[in-house]
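Summary of Year 1 activities. Much of the first year was spent building the evaluation harness for sequence design. The harness presents a backbone, in tokenized form, and records the residue chosen at every position. We chose the following record to illustrate the format because it has been used consistently in internal testing since the harness was completed.
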């Protein structure tokens, strides 16, 4: 179980994007999420759900922003995000954006 956004995306999900690390840690962090956003947007369009970059693409870019915030937190405090508060932060950040973007997706498809 991941206890931070950084742990989930960096150590559990995006192992494939490790070569982007040539851009340095902040560049690799955001670069990995940009690549993921583009891949998900293209996949969505390929399935006939082309709703613009605002749905799937935006979600992954916002996960990069959350991970960057954790990186900045560690730089400032010397502490990693984790534990019960880290889990709560991960759930709130991830689910808040997912629900907001899903609502936009359904509205743009004229389902709601």
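For this record, the design step produced the sequence shown next.
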């Amino acid at each position: 179980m991941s206890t931070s956004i950084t742990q989930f995306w960096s150590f559990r999900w995006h192992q494939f994007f490790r070569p982007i690390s040539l851009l340095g840690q902040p560049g690799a962090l955001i670069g990995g999420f940009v690549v993921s956003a583009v891949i998900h947007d293209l996949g969505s369009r390929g399935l006939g759900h082309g709703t613009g970059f605002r749905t799937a693409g935006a979600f992954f870019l916002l996960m990069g922003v959350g991970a960057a915030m954790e990186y900045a937190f560690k730089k400032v405090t010397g502490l990693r995000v984790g534990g019960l508060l880290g889990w709560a932060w991960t759930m709130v950040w991830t689910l808040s954006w997912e629900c907001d973007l899903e609502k936009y997706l359904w509205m743009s498809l004229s389902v709601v």
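The chain has a mean pLDDT of 77. Quantitative recovery figures across the full test set are reported in Table 2.
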